[in-house]
Amino acid sequence: MITEDEIKKIAKLAKLSMPENESKEFAEQLSGALKHFEQMTKINTDGIEPLVTPTQIEHFLRPDQAVQEISADKMVENAPEKIGNLFKVPPVV
Amino acid sequence: MDFRGYEPVIGLEIHAQLKTQSKMFCSDSTKFDALDNENTSPVSVGMPGALPVINKKAVEMSIQAGLALGCQIRHKSVFARKNYFYPDLPKGYQISQYDQPLCEHGKIQFVLDNEVKTISITRAHMEEDAGQSQHIGEYTLINYNRSGVPLLEIVSGPDLRTAKEAAEYARTVRQILRYLDVCDGNLEEGSLRCDCNVSVRKIGAPEFGTKVEIKNINSFRFIEKAIEFEIDRQIDMVEQGQKISQETRLFDPDKNQTISMRSKENAQEYRYFPDPDLLPVIVTDEEIQRLKSLLPELPVQRAQRFIKEFQLPEYDALILTAEKELADYFEKTALQSKNAKAASNWIMTELLRELKQTEKHISQSPVSEATLSELIGMIDQNIISGKMAKSVFSECWKTGKSPAQIVKEHNWVQITDTNAIEKVIEDILAQNPSQVADFRGGRTKVFGFFVGLAMKATKGQASPDLVNQILTIKLSGQ
């Protein structure tokens, strides 16, 4: 079971604002989801390696070559706010 | 070291920027002095849908570093997302490694105060760097040039016990990375960064104390100072019955103290999970063997070889191998001059002193290996005395001219004509009968007085060996 306090903490960590009345609703919904996973934990997985990826294909490594595909001007073009070619964001300290 | 009955427990996390051309997961350049956001692309600024692709060189460098740090290399390692919110981390997570790092269970050794220290390396894992924030007050500016630059995070065991030991450990790690040429180790430019975890406990206590992390220390001297301050601060607090809070602190070099940056009481929950965008990195035995065979000789091995091959004292060998370029310089000079002991002595005294005074790196030395070898050869062939050689060295340093040229210009050739020296000494003895009597009466100390006069009379050019020999004979009255 997940409590309303835990929901509030998660929202804070995820930087999400949440109206007071919704914490109860989310607590119930997320508890339901957790219950579903709890069921899965009952499955016997002795001797089974954890699966990181469902595919068994080989990983791919790219050669170390520097390439500039997009200019700095272009990269910041869609930024809501910028100064020169720097992204401008609300103060963080 | 006395810590008022306490034992400090220190562990270091070193972030080393790998010397690749491009970033960890995309092809942006890693060049340090690029213009604002010039080295960016959809992957490094976290655009939706952009997919990371692993840099081969970064993996190879990490494996080589892991091997040099005595680590085991995992055949299968996994990239994980470390989730937190900060504007310099545009995806909302850093790609790092969590429970299956590439390298683990290593150890390194170094000598400190004539004692061999062995420090364990818990793990070394690959990750990406974040961007850079510039706080203006009303707002913050972000440059993502550094975002996605490949890092190797090297985590030591909690084995370090003094600030000096911690700094020496960090120097040793830097030295290894530079030998491998996988990191340039520049602390000022941030290509090597060091976080120190420090706690104290009563000697013999089974549990560790609460640890405090000191971040962003940009010199080895400051590592030492920051830890020293922190140990004292924590012992003071415990002695006063106060509780040490788990927090991150910053070192202020001007005030020589650490200051609280943020509390970790509401511990960040990073919600690590395997990155679904990346497949596990599989490394075969053959690949590990191949990379191992490409490893250069490491500082410790090279020091051991110098001790054996050139009969150097351990202390000299460790100093001369502290930097690759210096070790190269020594080895070349030792081989060219065929006098390793002299090469070591000249480098350890004159050369290192001049370098230090002029704040030059060995690679900028105006005296080359060939020049120093020539100088040593001239002493060995009795062309000049050791004393003259110091003046010649100093001229070589200033003018960049060859020793032969300088000796010729100053007419500094050593007088090895026995008859000429005998004549000088006979004159001196004749002019100083009372001192001769003193000597013969047992005051052998006056010997030096005669040597001084003989050298002065020959403008320092008489062979000191011959002066000593002839004086001994003449004074004994033969």
> Helix share of residues of chain B?
25-40%
The side-by-side strand order for the widest beta sheet of chain A comes to: 2-3
Calculate the mean pLDDT score of chain B and round it.
Answer: 92
Summarize model confidence as the mean pLDDT of chain A.
89
So what's the CATH class of one domain in chain A? Mainly Alpha
What is the fold named in CATH at topology level of one domain in chain A? Histone, subunit A
Overall geometric form of chain A:
flat
Strand content of chain A: 5-15%
Structural class of chain A: mainly alpha
The total strand number of chain B stands at 17
Counting H and I runs of at least 4 residues, what is the number of helices of chain B? 15
**Main sheet: strand order of chain B:** 3-7-8-11-1-12-13-14-15
Task: State the domain count of chain B.
Answer: 3
Tell me what the structure shows.
Chain A has 93 residues and is mostly helical. Chain A has helices spanning 4-13, 22-41, 72-76, and strands spanning 61-62, 82-83, 86-89. A two-stranded antiparallel sheet of chain A has the order 2-3. In chain A, a hairpin with a 2-residue loop joins strand 2 and strand 3. Chain B is α+β, with helices and mostly antiparallel strands. In chain B, the strands form four sheets. In chain B, strands 3-7-8-11-1-12-13-14-15 form a nine-stranded mixed beta sheet. In chain B, helix 2 runs antiparallel to helix 3, helix 7 runs parallel beside helix 9 and helix 12 packs across helix 14. Chain B is elongated, with a radius of gyration of 30 Å. The model of chain B has no long low-confidence stretch (mean pLDDT 92). The A-B interface holds A 13-15, 52-53, 55, 57-72, 75-76, 81, 83-93 and B 20-22, 27-31, 35-42, 45, 53-59, 78, 85-87, 133-144, 268-269, 274, 276, 278-282. Strand 1 of chain A pairs parallel with strand 2 of chain B.
